[in-house]
């Protein structure tokens, strides 16, 4: 049997993937809600080590999606307009950071020992 034939006949491939995902979602929410064969299969998957080495258990995707849908449907709070003072403070901080970087560049090159013939520090 070739790899292509194996993929086409596998229950985990192609058109069956949504069904398997749905079964797994149901299993994560309530393991007894799926057929015993699926429950055993998913339990064996949970016992196998994760590919990325993590030890955390899988979480059902549906509640997470529903949470984000509910957040998206909430009325948006009025966007806060930054005050002029906040913008000026941010500009001062940015200038201070740029001044510090420039000081390291100019003073640091003077203090550095760049002559390879003069020996290492």
Describe the structure.
Helix content is 60%, strand content 0%. By secondary structure, it is mostly helical.
What are the salient characteristics of this protein?
121 residues; mainly alpha; 5 helices; 0% strand; elongated
Question: What's the Cα radius of gyration?
Answer: 29 Å
Protein structure class: mainly alpha
Number of helices: 5
Give the biggest sheet.
Answer: none
Average of the residue pLDDT scores: 81
List SSEs in N-to-C order. Answer: HHHHH
**Proportion of beta-strand residues:** under 5%
The shape is: elongated
DSSP E strands, number: 0
First-last Cα distance: 67 Å
| Percentage of residues assigned to helices | 55-70%
Low-confidence stretches: none
Question: Topology, please?
Answer:
Blueprint: H1 3-9, H2 17-29, H3 36-47, H4 61-73, H5 84-111
Give a quick rundown of the structure.
Helices cover 60% and strands 0% of the residues. It has helices at residues 3-9, 17-29, 36-47, 61-73, 84-111.
């Amino acid at each position: 049997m070739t790899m292509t034939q194996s993929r086409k006949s596998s229950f985990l491939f192609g058109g069956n993937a949504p069904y398997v995902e749905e079964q797994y979602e149901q299993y994560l929410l309530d393991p007894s809600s799926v057929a015993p064969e699926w429950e055993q299969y998913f339990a064996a998957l949970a016992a196998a080590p994760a590919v990325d080495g993590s030890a955390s258990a899988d979480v059902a995707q549906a509640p997470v999606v529903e949470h984000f849908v509910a957040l998206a449907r909430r009325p948006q709070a009025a966007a806060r307009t930054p005050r002029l003072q906040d913008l000026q403070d941010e500009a001062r901080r940015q200038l201070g950071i740029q001044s510090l970087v420039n000081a390291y560049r100019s003073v640091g090159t003077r203090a550095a020992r760049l002559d390879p013939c003069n020996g290492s520090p």
